[in-house]
């Protein structure tokens, strides 16, 4: 035992220290990032969110947004302070009913210091009151808040939440949502899940939406404007809610001809992936100038440009496939993007076969033959593409080639069991490429490390094509282009900012 002699002059300070709980010394700040190597500053450490309750008011004429976010969470360490990802102006923060100190840091961090440190495992309720004009805010040189002629839209990847609600912005921390938005009469508010109620008072209408299954923050969406809303139910009983801006012009007919097939496509995809995982399905097409679509959970965002060349069910298939591969089962880290995009692209290949416009094998043959060995296409590794190539075409097309190669290797019986079993194994959770490989080996009974390495990680064209049936005679000329190819190519920018 080591005894320490305290000098008389230090006695008062020592007495003060004794008044502080011994455990307080172990409390430390939560990390300003969740630890994703692609985006080190995204998300936060020290807590896990279970629910977001967002009560908002929006004025479309001025783009003013005011809100109160109530965040239910639990600490994962002894916590002295923690961060939220957010850009708007904060007026007050409370933690468990008590006012907390707060400041901002870096480009998108709200730093909260509770009055009393929080022990690990403590349930916490964080209330943030805020306001601002989202269209005036940017971080890292961009914005994900898109103004429209009659309102605005929040939809982007890998980030979108900062512009409209404070959050732990990483797919690794999923939560349920209640989103309540008041807008002037005549304007509508659309979000994820199901519409719980609509009330009107003194010139304002409030829309209350609920997503009752865990949802990644980038999959939360908000659309504010004047829409034509259609509702229905798929043949298998899935409620469908679609919305179209009233000023889509020449793209209106093609958008409706595509998106109104949502119920049919959801039921068709269920045959491959298992029961639809959410309480509703649908999409919306606002009058934006963006060029991408996004699998916002249960309510897909489509740019009007997706339908500039006519109807395009292929993009609808792609985004709805994500409801299983990407939304219900979300990536553990952004490097696992292949599980999202490779399988969503492969769903388009299966749809092509369903429509009689080219089989999955024919599409694989065409993609493989279209890229010579020295094409940079082969230098992108879909299994870990890096943040600069996260949405490169190779993640989609080479990613789908990897899926076809897996099918060729394990056979259709195991392959289709795998397609359906994976979303059930990890429903409403997170998983990695390594998790998928282990599951594929379990289902097929085959070692697959070499196949995954060849198709997902090696920066070169594999020696053998994914097509198992290409004869020597056929290798002299490129396979015929499947009829669906141009429609599939039209979706190549679905996630390009």
From TrEMBL:
<dbReference type="InterPro" id="IPR014782">
    <property type="entry name" value="Peptidase_M1_dom"/>
</dbReference>
<feature type="signal peptide">
    <location>
        <begin position="1"/>
        <end position="24"/>
    </location>
</feature>
<keyword id="KW-0645">Protease</keyword>
<feature type="domain" description="Peptidase M1 membrane alanine aminopeptidase">
    <location>
        <begin position="312"/>
        <end position="455"/>
    </location>
</feature>
<feature type="region of interest" description="Disordered">
    <location>
        <begin position="466"/>
        <end position="497"/>
    </location>
</feature>
<feature type="domain" description="Aminopeptidase N-like N-terminal">
    <location>
        <begin position="50"/>
        <end position="219"/>
    </location>
</feature>
<keyword id="KW-0378">Hydrolase</keyword>
<dbReference type="InterPro" id="IPR045357">
    <property type="entry name" value="Aminopeptidase_N-like_N"/>
</dbReference>
<dbReference type="InterPro" id="IPR042097">
    <property type="entry name" value="Aminopeptidase_N-like_N_sf"/>
</dbReference>
<keyword id="KW-0482">Metalloprotease</keyword>
<dbReference type="Pfam" id="PF01433">
    <property type="entry name" value="Peptidase_M1"/>
</dbReference>
<dbReference type="InterPro" id="IPR027268">
    <property type="entry name" value="Peptidase_M4/M1_CTD_sf"/>
</dbReference>
<dbReference type="InterPro" id="IPR001930">
    <property type="entry name" value="Peptidase_M1"/>
</dbReference>
<comment type="similarity">
    <text>Belongs to the peptidase M1 family.</text>
</comment>
<dbReference type="GO" id="GO:0004177">
    <property type="term" value="F:aminopeptidase activity"/>
</dbReference>
<protein>
    <recommendedName>
        <fullName>Aminopeptidase N</fullName>
        <ecNumber>3.4.11.2</ecNumber>
    </recommendedName>
</protein>
<dbReference type="Pfam" id="PF17900">
    <property type="entry name" value="Peptidase_M1_N"/>
</dbReference>
<keyword id="KW-0732">Signal</keyword>
<keyword id="KW-0862">Zinc</keyword>
<keyword id="KW-0479">Metal-binding</keyword>
<keyword id="KW-0031">Aminopeptidase</keyword>
<dbReference type="InterPro" id="IPR050344">
    <property type="entry name" value="Peptidase_M1_aminopeptidases"/>
</dbReference>
């Amino acid at each position: 035992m080591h005894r320490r002699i305290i000098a008389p002059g230090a006695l008062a300070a020592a007495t003060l220290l004794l008044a502080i709980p011994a455990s307080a010394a172990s409390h430390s700040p939560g990390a300003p990032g969740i630890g994703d190597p692609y985006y080190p500053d995204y998300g936060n450490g020290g807590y896990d969110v279970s629910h977001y309750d967002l009560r908002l008011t929006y004025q479309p004429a001025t783009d003013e947004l005011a809100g109160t976010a109530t965040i239910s969470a639990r600490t994962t360490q002894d916590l002295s302070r923690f961060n939220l990802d957010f850009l708007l102006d904060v007026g007050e923060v409370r933690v468990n009913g008590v006012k907390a100190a707060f400041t901002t840091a870096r480009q998108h961090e709200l730093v909260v210091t509770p009055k009393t440190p929080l022990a690990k495992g403590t349930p916490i309720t964080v209330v943030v009151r805020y306001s601002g004009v989202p269209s005036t805010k940017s971080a890292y040189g961009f914005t994900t808040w898109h103004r429209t002629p009659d309102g605005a839209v929040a939809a982007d990847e890998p980030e979108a939440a900062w512009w409209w609600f404070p959050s732990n912005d990483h797919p690794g921390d999923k939560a349920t949502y209640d989103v309540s938005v008041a807008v002037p009469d005549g304007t509508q508010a659309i979000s994820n899940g199901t519409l719980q109620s609509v009330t009107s008072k003194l010139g304002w209408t409030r829309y209350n939406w609920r997503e009752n299954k865990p949802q990644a923050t980038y999959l939360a969406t908000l659309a504010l404007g004047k829409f034509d809303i259609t509702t229905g139910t798929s043949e298998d009983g899935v409620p469908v809610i679609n919305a179209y801006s009233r000023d889509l012009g020449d793209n209106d007919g093609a958008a409706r001809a595509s998106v109104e097939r949502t119920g049919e496509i959801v039921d068709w995809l269920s045959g491959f992936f298992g029961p639809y995982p959410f309480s509703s399905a649908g999409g919306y097409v606002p009058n934006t100038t963006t060029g991408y679509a996004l699998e916002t959970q249960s309510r897909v965002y489509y740019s009007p440009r997706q339908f500039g060349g006519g109807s395009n069910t292929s993009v609808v298939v792609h985004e709805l496939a994500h409801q299983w591969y990407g939304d219900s089962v979300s990536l553990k880290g952004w490097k696992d993007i292949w599980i999202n995009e490779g399988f969503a692209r492969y769903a388009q290949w299966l749809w092509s076969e369903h429509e009689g416009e080219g089989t999955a094998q024919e599409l694989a043959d065409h993609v493989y033959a279209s890229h010579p060995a020295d094409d940079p296409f082969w230098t992108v590794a879909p299994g870990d593409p890096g943040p600069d190539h996260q949405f490169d075409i190779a993640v989609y097309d080479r990613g789908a080639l990897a899926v076809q190669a897996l099918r060729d290797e394990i056979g259709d019986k195991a392959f289709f069991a795998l397609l359906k079993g994976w979303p059930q194994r990890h429903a409403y959770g997170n998983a990695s490429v390594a998790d998928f490989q282990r599951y594929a080996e379990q289902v097929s009974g085959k070692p697959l490390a070499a196949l995954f390495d060849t198709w997902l990680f090696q920066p070169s064209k594999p020696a053998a094509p994914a097509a198992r049936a290409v004869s020597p005679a056929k290798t002299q000329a490129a396979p015929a282009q499947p009829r669906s190819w141009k429609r599939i190519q039209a979706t190549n920018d679905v996630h390009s900012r």
